[in-house]
Amino acid sequence: MSKGKVVVFGATGTVGAYSSALLAQHGYEVVGIGRRTDDGGFFDTIGGSYYSLDVSDRSAFSKLPHNNIKAVLHFAGSMPSKMQGYHPDAYVDSIVKGTLNVLDYCLEASAEKIVFTQTRADSVEYFGSETPLPDDIDRKYPKVGDHSVYTICKNAAVDLIEHYHYQHDLPRFIFRLPTIYAYHPDTFFYVDGKRKEKAYWYMIRQAMQGKTLSVWGDPGKKKEIFYVKDMAKAVLLAVESPLAGGVYNVGRGVGVTLEEQVKGISEIFSPKENSCDVCYEPDRPDGRQFVHSIAKIGKDLGFTPEYGYRDMLRDMKKEMKEKPFAKLWGLGDL
What we know:
Largest sheet: 7 strands, parallel
Radius of gyration: 20 Å
């Protein structure tokens, strides 16, 4: 018997897809929502359904189910990493207006709670410290760059969700995300509107060919490395929690140095007969350093991450072969 419906906005993205699959495994009926016209039949395979919908179009919500909604997961919205060129109006429409529409849908459908993902860019001014960043850090935004309006809109969405929590007693779980690592056949993203290959996928390609990997800048700089399957676990815990929620950091709570990152890729992805070397380029720019405190999510939701850094790389390598989301994302060339 189903535990109830979980409506997932942004269901065809990385976090949405992995969360949907895990929720289906735990007995929930998943209703996937995305802007794509077709999900390739993926949601049928997990016993769910799929609706094509633009969250900025309020009239489109009438076609969605309005009964037995255990939770609404709101992962939809334009992102700098997916935006060719620069279109700040897309952030206002999909994130601010879209969040207001999703919240009104929660009330109309008597949803038990909402789960939302916030960007780590709201805390970018605090990067550089070895002290784990707390959950209740003052939200800010980058004053320049492609993440500025995006973060302003994400912050506004958080404020809207908090308003609906206090005005309408809607439980909310707002997760501040670091970079989410996962296998995806599209290894490119956009920086300032220009398409580039993601650095860690570039290194993985180099390692698979037995080529030398470079460690730029200070090899001891630490970064929060967080796997998508642990993210999906946090989402599941939020769906099943009886609490009113709040704002939570997600992550491992332990930084991985740049040197550890590169050596891990060399170890896991190099051909056994041609292990790649690692060189150091200290004159290159340093990476950004930050680690999240995860004490609050551990206390409230009982969350503990399952994947260490090398565990994550091994599982990503396995997913590269198995391609569990090929119906959604295609096969790719890795």
